[in-house]
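With this grant's support, we have settled on a layout for protein records. A representative record follows, to show the layout.
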Amino acid sequence: MNLTPELAEYHVKIRDIAREYGLDFFETIFEMLDFDQINEVAAYGGFPTRYPHWRHGMGFEQLDKGYRYGLQKIYELVINNDPCYAYLLSSNSVVENKLVIAHVYGHCDFFKNNMWFSKTDRKMMDRMANHSTRIRQLIDRHGQDPVEDLIDRAQSLENLIDLYGEFVDDKDPWLKPVVEDADAEDDRAVNLKVRSKTYMDGFMNPPEVLEARRKKIEGDAEENARLPGGPQRDLLSFILQHAPLEQWEWEVLNIIREEAIYFAPQRVTKIMNEGWASYWHRRIMVEHILDDSEVIDYADTMAGTLAEGPALNPYKIGLELFLDIEDRWNKGRFGLEYERCQDLHAREIWDTNAGLGREQIFLCRKIHNDVTFVDEYLTEEFCHRHKLFVYRFNPRTRRREIVTRDFATVKEQLIRQLANGGAPVIEAVDVNWKNRGELYLQHRHEHQDLRQDWALSTLRNLFALWKRPVHVETRLEGKPVRYSCDGEEEITQIIGDADAE
């Protein structure tokens, strides 16, 4: 570490306080960088040894101009690794860097203990360096332009992975196939029975449920007949397995996918991760670290971090949700009795002194991602208190106006924005469409349109990898639409359900 003596002293104090609160983190190494250095590291995604590519230079240029023109400022950068690496900005004030150190320990605890980070590579700093070395070797062997062009195409697909794929187990231990009697009317019929003791079988597997499962299996089998195993959500993995790639192309694509999988948990826990870190830096700073002369500077920094604007601020909503959960569980404002209470005054003053707030927020930190966190803990009272409504820009008045305050609608839209990290869900459904070796994809619409220009650009990149025409089916204004690319022309075609099959 190259911290100043003053910050080194505060670092030890903050670390010990965090541990006393129950935070559990890997060893954390802090480095002090100037604004050029921290912008460069940030442009590489926090990994200074990452592979060379023009996009990293473009990212640095954008960050550098934003800082010089006073439009943005990086307070901290922390890497999910063992040990964790964190970077501080040397031009920050002492109170800002003390706040950042406390914030970093919140992130490090979240990285280590949240379930969605449990399968990430904890030695990614070394892995990134290995990736960089291999990319440089391939550039020396095959040339700068071919390798860089392939990286461009692969990066356009890096959000088309299964964000939860690392947790999917095809062999569910709770389910087992049971083959029917060969003399039965349909000797290929298969049920899925939940494992249970013999005396519980009738309760766990009632006949009507087994029949419903049978129909679902048969329906799924018919629907997924085009691609054994059903639609494939991880397109990068699918391309690696089935596209006619040369060895060096496969290596580059695999590197891009490995790094996309590493960053996936951060995409699905942005609100929780920033909220958790903000909760702990707030508690540690206010209760233990701040002195009277630093209160104004601290409040000014917090006001900038938690400022609300047209876009959702993950720091703000995450922090407020954790505070709300802690308060509700401390006062016993949960459970059937509280939910059934219709007296508004009684609900307002409800306090059973349950004292379970700290335990509950640690449980949240352990098991949830953003979607499940919002789905489980967002309440109507919280939405009204923080003005979480559905807004729309009115071009006539040139102002954002409230469309609806309906809680169900607000919650649905928020979850929709968070689902799949905000990216559209695209699945491969056929590798030999119309028996021509063409790749057929399907967009799971879910009220989220595809941008035509982005879709066609992505199809061009897919065609370059697949070497055959590529199609994606979606919906536009309620009508089924197919975008196609055969390398020479791009076609947008309104299709019927029969044609889609």
Q: What stands out?
A: DSSP finds 21 helices and twelve strands in the chain. Residues 124-162+233-267 form one domain. The longest helix spans residues 247-268.
